[in-house]
Every structure is written in C-alpha cells, then in structure tokens.
C-alpha cells in the first residue's frame, strides 16, 4: 500500500496561468525553474556526445575524461562543460580548451558543429575545428545521429553523456557529498568502468541522472539551446512521424448485443426508479450513451481514427464522471439531481441561443 501522508492532493496545488503548480514550487515563487535535458541541456553537451559517438563508450569516456580533467587544471573558472560557457571564455582560455581537446581527439570529431557555430560568431572555435572539405550533408548526418542517440534522457547513451557533464565539476572538487550518500559516491566512481548490462547499473544510472539533474536545476542559457534547435531545424528537412496501428481482429458484436440486453433488462426491471430516482436515471442514461458511442465506433470501423479515439475518450470521461459522482454522493446527497439539472440547463442554453439566432 502506498503511504500517502506526505503526498499533496490536488486541492493543495496552485493554479498559475492554467497550470497546476505543486506546493513546493508555489512556495518558491518564480525562483524555481525546470531544466529539460533534451531541449535545454543536451545541446550544450553535444560536443562531448560527438566524442562518445566517434570512439564508443569505453574509449569515448576515457578520452572525454582526460580532456575534462586537464581543463579542470588549466581553466579553473569553467565548472560545467557547457558549450555556451566555453564560448563565453576569453580567447586565450578558449584556445587552451580547444588545444586540450585536439590533444586527445581528431579535430574532425567536433567539426560538424561549425555548421551551427559559424566563424563570424565563433572565430576561435572555427580556427581549431573548421574543415573545408567536410560536406554540409555529412555534418548534418553526424549531428542528427548524435541528437537521436542522446535526446532520450533515460537512455544508456544519454546517461553516459550526463555522467561526463558531471565529471568536470567533480574534477574541480566543487561537488561535495555528505557521509550518508556513500552509494552515490560509489556509483560515480564505478560508473565509467561498469558495463551497462551489469545489474548494478540499474541503480548507478538513476543516481547519475538524478545528480546531474539536481546540479542543473534552473541553470542554463536557454537562448543558446533555443538557437541550436532553431538553426538546426532550419537546415534539416521535416520528417513527419506516422504511427500505424494494426486493425483489431476482435469481433465486438456479441459483446455489444449482450450489453444491450443487460441494459434493457436492468431498465425494464427498475422502470419505477427511472421515474423517481435521479441516480438511476443518470447512471442508465450515461451507460447507454457510452454504449451507443462504442457501437458506432464498431459499426463504422472507426478504430484508431481521430473520431474513434475521440469516442473512446468520451467513454472514459463518462466512466470518470460516474466514479466521481458515486464517491461524492455521501457528502452531497443531492449531487445526482444537481448533475442532471446541470445537463438539462446546458441543453436549454444551446436551444435558447439557437432560437434567438434562427427565429
């Protein structure tokens, strides 16, 4: 059983601009901001991702680790290996970073990024990594492959990249842990040397992700990431996603007929209740409405079409509403009558508007 004593209910949430905000976020005002991995942080670390992509996990983590370790010794002000922060360094410090990178990997590894960070805006970066004979199509394909590999924040590849994102601040000695977090320390120590198939990695990966996420809470240059997605989107074709669902082989005719018979039996066996009890009237009417929708979906073979999915959603809404009314009737004995009158009044409002318009 879930212990719900520390779980806040919907009533404790605040509504801001149409969104539900948790009590913690509401108390923090506008100072607490979410930072999304794929949208905001991943583009910043993609240069490290290109190293992983080129050399594979074991060699890639080793090479990237050596690069980040040397950067921590030579550029002490850089605590996170974000591309925007590297670009923000003075020219001489940028050169130090790029020389360290070129010492451990070939310059063509980061060359695709010159497509997004041109010489007129990032001259120092292009001095080190621009390769004139690297085709635009090849640069696009490499960046696309990297984005595909590292966008899913819980994938093994993305977790490797998130581990590297933590490494620089670890090398700088700026990330400290209390004694009770020994498991986190062990996870960070053993992560690069443990295969993803190892059972321990299920725990290690979650610890790496949570630590990286906590270190970046509310941080980041959103303009830099936004420009990344805009610029890359403008030079790549749109590939619409199409989801195909197989046709259902289940025959629902017998089920529908059985439901109709049961509904008729219940109604005619309790006809007096339909005349005097609002609860019975609402329940039977709602179930009959849901059954008619389901019958139409089946008869017209709507299946996974837009109208079919809309119909299924309506059936679910009917179920949720009935469940809600059943739970609240103890506190509000007249809730069935009020719900019924609410529906009638909505119908009357539509009718009155139509009369004013056409008559």
User: What is the spatial order of strands in the main beta sheet?
Assistant: 1-2
Distance linking N and C termini: 60 Å
Our count of domains comes out at 2
3D shape: elongated
Give the SSE string.
EEHHHHHHHHHHHHHHH
How much is the radius of gyration in Å? 30 Å
Average pLDDT over all residues: 86
Please mark out the parts with pLDDT under 50 across 5 or more consecutive residues, or reply none. Answer: 1-6
| Protein structure class | mainly alpha
Description:
This protein has 15 helices and 2 strands. The chain is elongated. The protein has a two-stranded antiparallel ribbon with strand order 1-2. The relative contact order is 0.08. Helix content is about 65%, strand content about 0%. Strand 1 and strand 2 form a beta hairpin. It has 2 domains: about 200 residues, no CATH class; about 110 residues, no CATH class.
